[in-house]
Design a protein that fits this description.
Layout (H helix, E strand, L loop, with lengths): L9 H16 L10 E4 L7 H14 L2 E6 L3 H13 L3 E5 L2 H6 L4 E4 L3 H11 L4 E5 L4 H8 L5 E5 L3 H10 L7 E4 L4 H10 L3 E2 L9 H15 L5
Parallel strand pairs: 1-2, 1-8, 2-3, 3-4, 4-5, 5-6, 6-7, 7-8
Length: 225
């Protein structure tokens, strides 16, 4: 007796095709660019403590970016440190403030439309990133815009799944955000993240910032593997 064929939905067919492409295109770790550090201090943290940890992390590791809220007192304190160390400064969700402070761009957490509008406000030379949540389809829609990076939340299994799925398929660089500990950062680096945000413990002291900066930079140095 012949088994009856079960029709596949278009969505299921697309998922199968994407998985086949992922398996065929998976790159060896040594072919990926180095994973750099993406810093974002906890909300409400003292500016002097942020400055001390930022200085320590920049001295010990490869820091690419610092994300700050739209807080003039804070940006006045720490932006010069970032600029002295060639670290891009992005402002959370406020293109006008970013333009006023002459920041390098914005980190958009609201919607893809806001990310597109930010590029129109700040110009193509500005860096605009977007924090993706939800489905793979939503992430793909974001990747089809002119964003400069897409970020995934490592604190949730869904975010880890999105990052792991994204890396071999898309050219838009990805960031691993919200790792709860160093081990989660190392997993994101192993999965191929272009940038990783150290855990909140990095901001506990300058010594811990230096230690994590050094350790995660060494792990992200794929050219040495």
């Amino acid at each position: 007796m012949l088994a009856r064929a079960i029709p596949l939905s278009l969505g299921r067919i697309a998922s199968i095709l994407i998985e086949l492409i992922r398996l065929m295109s998976k790159q060896p770790a040594e072919n990926l660019p180095n994973c750099r550090l993406f810093l974002m201090p906890p909300s409400g943290m003292d500016a002097d403590m942020i400055a001390a940890s930022l200085t320590a992390a920049a001295g010990a590791g490869d820091v690419a970016c610092l994300v700050l809220p739209a807080d003039k007192a804070l940006t006045d304190k720490v932006m010069p440190i970032a600029q002295q160390n060639d670290i891009a400064v992005l402002i959370v969700d406020d293109s006008r403030f970013a333009a006023y402070e002459k920041a390098d761009g914005v980190h958009i957490t609201t919607s893809v439309d806001d990310a597109v509008s930010a590029h129109k406000t700040l110009g193509r030379n500005a860096s605009v990133g977007f924090v993706a949540s939800g489905s793979r389809h939503a992430a793909m829609e974001a990747g089809e815009t002119d964003i400069d990076y897409i970020a995934f939340d490592l604190a949730s299994p869904a975010g880890v799944d999105l990052l792991t799925w994204w890396v071999p398929l898309f050219e838009v660089p990805c960031v691993g955000l919200g790792a709860l500990d160093e081990a989660a950062c190392l997993d994101a680096i192993a999965a191929g993240a272009d940038f990783v945000m150290p855990p909140a413990a990095m901001w506990d002291s300058a010594d811990e910032a230096a230690r994590l900066g050094r350790a995660l930079t060494a792990a992200g140095n794929r050219s040495a593997s």
